[in-house]
Amino acid sequence: MIDLVFIISITLIDVTIFFKEIEKPKQKRSSLLILLAIISFVIVLLYTVSLVLKAF
């Protein structure tokens, strides 16, 4: 149950950061923040897949 809360909260934070940065004009955009959001999203995705595989 804690895993599910963790996955949902990290995903929401990532999506929020990603879209707030994408909306900014190109000069003010932080590519590092976008990169970190994508990387953490991929990590959470891999974590979710490993949890699903453990369940079966």
Unreliable stretches covering 5 or more consecutive residues? none
Provide a count of the helices. Answer: 2
Query: What is the rounded Rg?
Result: 14 Å
Question: Which class best fits the helix and strand makeup?
Answer: mainly alpha
Taken in chain order, the helices and strands follow as HH
Give the rounded overall mean pLDDT.
Answer: 87
Strand content: under 5%
Q: How is the main sheet built?
A: none
Would you report the number of β strands? 0
What is the percent of helical residues?
A: over 70%
Name the overall outline. Answer: elongated
Q: CA-to-CA gap between the ends?
A: 17 Å
How are the SSEs placed, and which strands pair?
Elements: H1 2-23, H2 31-55
Helix pairs in contact: 1-2
Walk me through what this model shows.
- The chain crosses the membrane at residues 6-22, 34-53.
- This protein is mainly alpha-helical and 56 residues long.
- The protein has a domain at 30-56.
- Helix content is 84%, strand content 0%.
- The protein contains two helices and no strands.
- It has helices at 2-23, 31-55.
- Helix 1 (2-23) packs antiparallel against helix 2 (31-55).
- The longest helix is centred in the last third of the chain and has 25 residues, at 31-55.
- The mean pLDDT is 87.
